[in-house]
């Protein structure tokens, strides 16, 4: 599910409450995109901060008759793990998101590195020795008149001689890379296979709107009980002061 789809679904479901706090979810998607693009973000910490902020805002909404300062809200966060307002979703989703995003970013980065290596190898200049030997082999009598000639009388170098020569003289650098390159390819194949199954990012992102919505509803259903427990932990909050109504338009 895209960010736009998520926004539409939550806007339809939660209306003005979502509109008032949509920045929380916008930040979550921004952090996911940022990690995918540059990998500089601590994804686990970013997801924890998302749930912490969502938790505080929901707690305030569920207890709108009270006034909470920053210290009080920080106290509620200290007990969040104990309260489990969103059930087990935060722990599960953080692990799944981190695992999938790390894997897909690693795969994309590895493809780029592999492409850069191939470009470098292709652009390696041919040595003078290699050029001279190839030129001399093209005039080999056995290649011209032997059974290796093609029907069009095009010079064909003996395969065994050619391969031996190429490996030792022209492709020494490539030959040295061969073992590591094969290992790289095998690792990429294994990772690609995991990206289709356990690390499949689409399987994580597609239902994220449903998972987060279920977590929010879980908090709503247990809001009174959780709030009372937090009042016991952090102290009884004070009621908001009612604004005086002024009926005089002037």
Automatic annotation (TrEMBL):
<protein>
    <submittedName>
        <fullName>Glypican-4, variant 2</fullName>
    </submittedName>
</protein>
<keyword id="KW-0472">Membrane</keyword>
<keyword id="KW-0325">Glycoprotein</keyword>
<dbReference type="GO" id="GO:0009966">
    <property type="term" value="P:regulation of signal transduction"/>
</dbReference>
<dbReference type="GO" id="GO:0009986">
    <property type="term" value="C:cell surface"/>
</dbReference>
<dbReference type="GO" id="GO:0098552">
    <property type="term" value="C:side of membrane"/>
</dbReference>
<comment type="similarity">
    <text>Belongs to the glypican family.</text>
</comment>
<keyword id="KW-0336">GPI-anchor</keyword>
<keyword id="KW-0732">Signal</keyword>
<dbReference type="InterPro" id="IPR001863">
    <property type="entry name" value="Glypican"/>
</dbReference>
<dbReference type="GO" id="GO:0016477">
    <property type="term" value="P:cell migration"/>
</dbReference>
<comment type="function">
    <text>Cell surface proteoglycan.</text>
</comment>
<dbReference type="GO" id="GO:1905475">
    <property type="term" value="P:regulation of protein localization to membrane"/>
</dbReference>
<keyword id="KW-0654">Proteoglycan</keyword>
<dbReference type="Pfam" id="PF01153">
    <property type="entry name" value="Glypican"/>
</dbReference>
<dbReference type="GO" id="GO:0005886">
    <property type="term" value="C:plasma membrane"/>
</dbReference>
<keyword id="KW-0357">Heparan sulfate</keyword>
<keyword id="KW-1003">Cell membrane</keyword>
<keyword id="KW-0449">Lipoprotein</keyword>
<dbReference type="GO" id="GO:0005576">
    <property type="term" value="C:extracellular region"/>
</dbReference>
<dbReference type="GO" id="GO:0045202">
    <property type="term" value="C:synapse"/>
</dbReference>
